[in-house]
ADP-L-glycero-D-manno-heptose-6-epimerase (Fulvivirga marina), 317 residues
Amino acid sequence: MIVVTGAVGFIGSQLIEKLNTENFNNIIAVDKFDNPTKNKNIEDLKILEKVDRDIFHQWLDVNYEEVEFVFHIGAKTDTALFDKGLLSKLNTQYTKDLWLQCIKYQIPFVYASSAATYGLGEYGYNDDEGLIQNLEPLNPYGQSKQDFDVWALSQDEKPFYWAGLKFFNVYGPNEYHKGRMASVVWHAYNQIRDTGTMKLFRSHNPEYKDGHQMRDFIYVKDVVDVCYWLMHHRKDSGIYNLGSGKARTFLDLTKAVFKAMNKEENISFIDTPEDIRDKYQYFTEANMDKLRGIGYSKKFHDLEEGVEEYVKHYLDT
C-alpha cells in the first residue's frame, strides 16, 4: 500500500493518478473528504481505502506492516492565513508525528516543503542544507514549513529514506478548488475567458519592467514524475528544490495563455496592493543541480508546453 496525504488536493490527486497510471492501485488516500468539490478530483481513481487525516496516525499504528511508502503532500497552504497555531498543528506537528512513525516502522517518507521558505531570496534559491536554518519566510505558512525542515535536519534519527521537496510555483489540473491561491495560469485563463483581457501587477521596482517580475513555474505533471522517481530511487535522503530551474516572466505566462486559447493579447497593468508591496517577490528560480546530481534526468515541460497542455486538455474541456 502507498499512502498519499492531501489526497483530494491539487498535487495529491495528480500523484495518485500518476501512481494508477503506473499500476499502483492499492492507494491509501488521506484527507478530510468534507469538500464535495475537491472530492471530485479522485472520484475516477483507483483507491483501496480513504482515511480521515484526524485518525490517520492511529490507522498507521495498526496497518504499518502493509505500507510500502508515505507521500505526505497534505498541508494548510494558504499564504494569507495568519493563524500560527493552526499552521503549526497541521503543517509542522502533524509532519513531525508522521516522521517519527516512519522511523519506528521503517517506512520511506517523502514530504512537501515549499519555496515559501526562501522568503525574499536573501540567500538565493539553493537547496544547500547548510543554509536552510538561515532562511526567513515572509508569512506563517512558509514559517510552518521552514520550522519542520530545520527540525528534520536537526534530528539524530531519521527515516531510512526521506526527502523534503521545496515546491515552487506549481500549476496544472485539479487546482480549481484553491480559489485565489490557485496558479496565475488558472486565474489568467478565467479572466481572459470572461473579459477578454488580463490584468497584471505593475512593477514597483526600477530593476524590473511591468510584467517582467519572474517566477519559477513548474507543471504539476513534472512534480509528480519526480515524486514517482524518488519512490524507486530511495537513496540520497535530504531536502530538494522542485521547480523547473528556469525563471520566466508573468508576461511570458500570460502570452502563453492567450496563445493556447487562440485569443488576441490584451494585457494591462494595475498597482500591486500596498499591503503586499514590501514583501513582493520579483524573482524566484530553483537551483536544480542537487536533484539532477542524484540522477534525475527527465526533461521538465517548458512554460509554453505546460500551459498549452493545461489549457487545451483540461481547462477548455
Summary: The chain has two domains: 2-171+217-245+286-301, 181-214+247-277. The domain at 2-171+217-245+286-301 is CATH 3.40.50.720 (Rossmann fold). The longest helix spans residues 84-105. The chain has a mean pLDDT of 95.
